[in-house]
Specification:
With 247 residues, the chain is an alpha+beta fold. The chain is built from seven helices and eight strands.
């Protein structure tokens, strides 16, 4: 399998969805898209950030008078379906399905014209940039796709080329995907199961260390190491991953 990456940068006022990300730097999104046929695709997108920003994203997605898909001058003409899969104070998971796509030229459209069937799209949004990564069976006509997409972007959008290479790193980007050393994972699981991280705390490090048969200092060190790994993974994932795709 092969992957190609690129990014599209947006000026303020050029796109209703990206305007929310430009206005609220703390907002970021990660999506997986499936391209079914030349006139339909689906997307599951997870947005994280302030509740007011999530409200704006949801409103923009559900407003069919504002197109959040087209990247050329052609406004998207299609039958749209949106649904909220999950919603909390700081996270929003949206399902989008477009069918009977007419005239609209999103990233998916030229990809469907030129790239082999069976495409999977992964994307990230943050501030003024939408990073894309496409998984495909072969790289035939990739040059035609790149040239067409870059040449036809509407005013206010600019194209940054990434790479074309063998696919790697296609996995769910989350703290749960991090592999901890066995002793750290064992310590962390014991602490969680004992309620050490639950308020009010009803157990102590001494209790957990005794149950594991290790010194308190050893348990404390292992927990700090595991916490540091998971916290850095959580904070760094969406902030840097999109930029790394272009390397």
């Amino acid at each position: 399998m092969r992957e190609l990456t690129f990014a599209i940068e947006y000026e303020p006022g050029s796109d209703p969805i990206m305007d929310v990300f430009i206005d609220r730097p703390g907002l970021h999104a990660h999506s997986i898209d499936g391209f079914v046929t030349a006139d339909r695709f689906w997307r599951i997108e997870r947005c994280s950030g302030p509740e007011s920003a999530l409200d704006r994203v949801e409103a923009a997605r559900f407003d069919d008078d504002r197109c959040g898909e087209a990247v050329t001058e052609r406004r998207c003409d299609a039958t749209r379906y949106h649904d909220v899969l999950e919603r909390s104070a700081n996270a929003l998971v949206l399902y989008t399905y477009l069918e009977d796509i007419r005239q609209c030229e999103s990233v998916h459209t030229p990809a469907g014209r030129h790239l082999p069937p069976g495409l999977i799209f992964e994307s990230r949004r943050r501030e003024d940039t939408h990073w894309w990564r496409i998984l495909m069976r072969s790289d035939q006509q990739v040059g035609v796709f790149y040239d067409e997409l870059g040449a036809r972007l509407r005013d206010g959008l600019s194209f940054r080329m990434g790479h074309l290479r063998d696919a790697s790193g296609w996995r769910r980007e989350s703290p749960a995907a991090v592999a901890l050393p066995e002793e750290q994972e064992r310590a962390l699981r014991a602490a969680v199961e004992a309620g050490y991280y639950d308020p009010p705390r009803e157990t102590t490090l001494d209790d957990i260390a005794s149950a594991l048969g290790v010194p308190r200092s050893t348990l404390s060190y292992r927990l700090r190491q595991a916490e540091s790994t998971l916290l850095h993974r959580y904070v760094d994932a969406d902030a840097d991953e999109g930029s790394r795709w272009l390397e």
